[in-house]
């Protein structure tokens, strides 16, 4: 199954605004995506509460996983989003 | 025309306002669990309640004028509509829980993981509780808890308000506060004053007034008139505004009519309060409360974060005096990172400076941050410690302040032991600042949150004034400043008496400052001394007030 591991780029971690942007993008994706930290249980990337509960900080490595048509592209897009500092995105 | 009903409470923030009364709904209590016969129906009920919460939050977000507020509300809406949450609800229903309990348990699971993650997420636990309470209220057919958002100005009534509720108030929408319980020196009252909202506490019967009834609130006298007509209400509000405008027209440093100077300072919690202080021409800050930075934190704020927060206030007050108080936690202001649970009587426990007995590092870091912020701004920074009881404590604190490179060290007078030894204290520190709220509480053994004992917490109590007089005399003898930064300083009628007792500065919520300035301008220094003698000699607070005001 295609996966991507990426370090969270946002200054405040995967919280508040960055989490909301990521979750919205994941919800709009054509395939079901999961996200996990290390070996912990993967959770749905489109669940705001589950993503917040990961407690991922800036620099925490998270792994995305998805299967199906467009999985590779979706994972690349979401990984790029995670690597960006979303706290700084609109100044 | 409905009959006018007059209620009376304790006025804690002067001002007159009229508007429809709306109540804050209580947090719903969970009823006993009922047996579930149709699991699917139960999940559907929970799902539709959560959907209602989502709709409510989205509608509020659409209405919010502030973009940040709107974004926070949308994020909350996303949480309430989260699929993972509904999955959790379903699991609990399948295990036999009814909709209300399943919702509560599902939120509880996320609450636990948020708390376990610590830091930022632990601070978001309150959001989850808010969502849970809303969903539970919907399921029980009750109004959602929290401050009403009717979209028009109103008078807010409640049994009591948590500081978090009052901090969240929109002063443009809330015209006045009336609570059934609560004391005049509770933090709710203090926050109401900071927001400049007319407020009455300890007002029995206010919760019996029908929602939407037009009420007239007088925050000076504590009178609440329900069922008054629009014309009379408007006339009363207009008359009060004219009196306030006359006081506000007076500017300049505080002084009596014969030119005896009394510094008029502002109480602030952060740089956000400084514009209000400027508006009333405050001569500086007499009490910069630093605990706002620490409240609700699971970890102590770091040195840099503290430097930044202090620097903001120091820069905004450049060239003026800023008296900053070191962390005043404990008792009614518990701090999660200090792990203070389990004290049998927190008001008599480890609070204020006493925290340094267990955690000297917290004080050292704070003093280092204050020194750094001062170095960067060049403000006239004075530092004082809360809850000092002995000369040894004061001397140790002063040494730590000087060690940190800060020139002025002072202590708060909040317990009778300190007031009685004011002269000795001034032998080791540069100034005193009297916290009348706590000094009342400890002198009369009356909890400041206890509305039923409000008469004992009256700042006109002669015994309290006598203790203030001991401090004032000590200040005169030593030639050192003695301020009052408790709520008594905001009482315009009391100001001349405090000055007569030897107090050299008064620090208060900015809103109260114009009236205090006007009161002092109307008396001579000799008047102040004479009034002070009368008040101290009075047998009780009511007589003291009467002797001074006439």
Automatic annotation (TrEMBL), chain A:
PROSITE patterns: PTS_HPR_DOM (PS51350). One of its GO terms (cellular component) is cytoplasm. It holds the Pfam family PTS-HPr. Transmembrane segments: none annotated. CDD domains: PTS-HPr_like. It is found in: Cytoplasm. Residues 1-89 form the HPr domain. The keyword Cytoplasm applies. GO terms for biological process: phosphoenolpyruvate-dependent sugar phosphotransferase system. Keywords: Cytoplasm, Phosphotransferase system. InterPro entries: HPr, HPr-like, HPr-like_sf. The keyword Repressor does not apply. PANTHER family: PHOSPHOCARRIER PROTEIN HPR, PHOSPHOCARRIER PROTEIN NPR. NCBIfam families: PTS_HPr_family. This is Putative phosphocarrier protein HPr.
């Amino acid at each position: 199954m295609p996966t991507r591991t990426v370090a969270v780029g946002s200054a405040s971690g995967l919280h508040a605004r960055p989490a909301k942007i990521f979750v919205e993008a994941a919800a709009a994706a054509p395939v079901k995506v999961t996200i996990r930290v290390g070996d912990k249980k993967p959770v749905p990337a489109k669940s705001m509460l589950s993503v917040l509960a990961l407690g991922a900080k800036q620099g925490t490595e998270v792994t995305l996983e998805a299967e199906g048509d467009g999985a590779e592209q979706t994972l690349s897009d979401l990984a790029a989003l995670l690597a960006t500092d979303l706290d700084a995105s609109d100044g | 025309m409905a009959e006018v009903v007059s209620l009376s409470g304790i006025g804690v923030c002067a001002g007159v306002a009229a508007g429809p009364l709306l109540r804050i709904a209580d947090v719903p209590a969970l009823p006993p669990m009922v047996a579930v016969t149709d699991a699917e129906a139960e999940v559907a009920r929970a799902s539709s309640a959560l959907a209602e919460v989502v709709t409510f939050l989205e509608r509020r977000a659409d209405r919010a004028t502030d973009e940040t507020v709107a974004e926070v509300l949308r994020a909350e809406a996303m949480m309430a509509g989260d699929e993972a949450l509904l999955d959790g609800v379903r699991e609990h229903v399948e295990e036999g829980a009814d909709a209300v309990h399943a919702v509560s348990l599902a939120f509880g699971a996320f609450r636990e993981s948020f708390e376990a993650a610590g830091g930022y997420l632990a601070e978001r636990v309150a959001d989850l509780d808010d969502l849970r309470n809303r969903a539970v209220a919907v399921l029980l057919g009750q109004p959602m808890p929290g401050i009403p958002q009717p979209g028009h100005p109103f008078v807010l009534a409640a049994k009591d308000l948590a500081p978090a509720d009052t901090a969240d108030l929109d002063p443009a929408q809330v015209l006045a506060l009336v609570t059934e319980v609560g004391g005049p020196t509770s933090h709710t009252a203090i926050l109401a004053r900071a927001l400049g909202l007319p407020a009455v506490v300890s007002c029995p019967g206010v919760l019996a007034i029908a929602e939407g009834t037009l009420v007239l609130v007088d925050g000076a006298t504590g009178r609440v008139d329900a069922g008054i007509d629009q014309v009379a209400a408007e006339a009363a509000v207009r008359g009060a505004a004219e009196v306030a405008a006359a006081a506000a027209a007076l500017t300049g440093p505080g002084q009596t009519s014969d030119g005896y100077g009394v510094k008029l300072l502002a109480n602030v919690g952060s740089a956000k309060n400084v514009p209000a202080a400027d508006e009333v021409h405050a001569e500086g800050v007499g009490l910069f409360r630093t605990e706002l930075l620490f409240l609700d934190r699971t970890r102590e704020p770091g040195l840099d974060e503290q430097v930044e927060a202090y620097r903001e206030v120091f820069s905004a007050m450049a060239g003026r005096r800023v008296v900053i108080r070191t962390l005043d936690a404990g008792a009614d202001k518990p701090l999660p990172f200090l792990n203070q649970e389990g004290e049998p009587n927190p008001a008599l426990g480890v609070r204020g400076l006493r925290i340094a007995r267990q955690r000297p590092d917290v004080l050292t870091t704070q003093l280092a941050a204050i020194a750094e912020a001062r170095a960067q701004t060049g403000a006239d920074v004075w530092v004082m410690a809360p809850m000092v009881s002995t000369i040894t404590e004061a001397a140790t604190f002063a040494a730590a302040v000087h060690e940190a490179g800060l020139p002025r060290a002072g202590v708060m007078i909040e317990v009778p032991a300190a007031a009685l030894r004011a002269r000795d204290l001034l032998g080791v520190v540069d100034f005193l600042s009297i916290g009348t709220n706590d000094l009342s509480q400890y002198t009369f053994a009356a909890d400041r949150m206890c509305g039923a004992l409000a008469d004992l917490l009256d700042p006109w109590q002669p015994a309290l004034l006598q203790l203030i007089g001991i401090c004032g005399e000590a200040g005169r003898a030593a030639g050192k400043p003695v301020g009052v930064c408790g709520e008594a300083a905001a009482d315009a009628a009391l100001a001349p008496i405090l000055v007569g007792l030897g107090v050299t500065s008064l620090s208060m919520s900015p809103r109260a400052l114009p009236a205090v300035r006007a009161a002092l301008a109307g008396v001579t220094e000799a008047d102040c001394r004479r009034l002070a003698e009368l008040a101290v000699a009075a047998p009780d607070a009511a007589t003291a007030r009467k002797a001074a005001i006439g």
